[in-house]
Design goal:
By secondary structure, the protein is mostly helical. It has eleven helices and no strands. Helix 2 crosses helix 4 and helix 4 runs parallel beside helix 6.
């Protein structure tokens, strides 16, 4: 993934003391459905989301990264918790209603990602953290209310997925990993809101395109290797 030119987070090896001191994974791992940390009854994702919502956009995004990282360590939380909480906060900031048009939805989402993408990218140290972003949008879309009604209807969910992919926030591997999880649920819980969302035609069309794109990239890589061998 490439960050915006001139962004302080563009260099993965830059000296941001709090983030760059982190190990690749936490000593304690938490499942995506377990929001609780070391202290009893602490809603880790909820607290991380609150930190994001209190953040002033006029301040450097590094300040938020330091706050999230500090709370993360205090609760033995994970980067997946951080990325999920951040995307939940972004969606809340957007104040989406059932009357929000798809064009407005995508435009505002892209606008916010211009500022938030470096944070999401920096904390996505692997596929799990990227998938947590998708899970955060899925959770919002299946939680009811006006925002859930909008994100679970028409092309809305598909457009958010596609925007995350186009803006280099979530990789095709992470999206397809999420897809595999939902495919496995079809036989066990076909009527669940998550499966119903996943089976929407616009979502399936995007996933089909993504698989074709991945196959095309693989073929291009094989052709390059063959040409290189022929030149030797």
């Amino acid at each position: 993934m490439q960050l915006e030119d001139g962004d302080d987070f563009s260099d993965k090896d830059a000296d941001h003391s709090e983030l760059d001191a982190l190990s690749e994974f936490d000593a304690v791992e938490f499942g995506t459905d377990d929001p609780y940390g070391r202290q009893k009854d602490v809603d880790v994702i909820g607290e991380l989301k609150a930190i994001c919502l209190e953040y002033e956009a006029s301040s450097p995004i590094e300040n938020l990264a330091i706050e999230l990282n500090s709370f993360k360590f205090s609760q033995n939380a994970s980067y997946s918790d951080c990325t999920k909480a951040a995307i939940l906060a972004i969606l809340e900031i957007m104040e989406i209603t059932k009357d929000t048009t798809d064009a407005k939805l995508v435009a505002e989402f892209k606008s916010l990602l211009e500022h938030w993408a470096p944070l999401l990218q920096k904390m996505s140290i692997g596929q799990d953290e990227e998938k947590a972003i998708v899970l955060g949008i899925e959770r919002t879309a299946t939680s009811g209310g006006e925002i859930g009604e909008k994100l679970s209807s028409g092309n809305a969910f598909r457009f958010l997925l596609q925007t995350l992919y186009n803006e280099d926030v979530v990789s095709e591997e992470a999206i397809l990993a999420w897809s595999e999880d939902r495919t496995a649920e079809i036989d066990t819980d076909p009527s669940s809101a998550r499966v119903q969302l996943y089976q929407q035609q616009p979502v399936q069309e995007f996933l089909k395109w993504l698989v074709a794109e991945e196959s095309s990239d693989d073929d291009d890589g094989s052709d390059d290797e063959d040409n290189s061998s022929a030149d030797e």
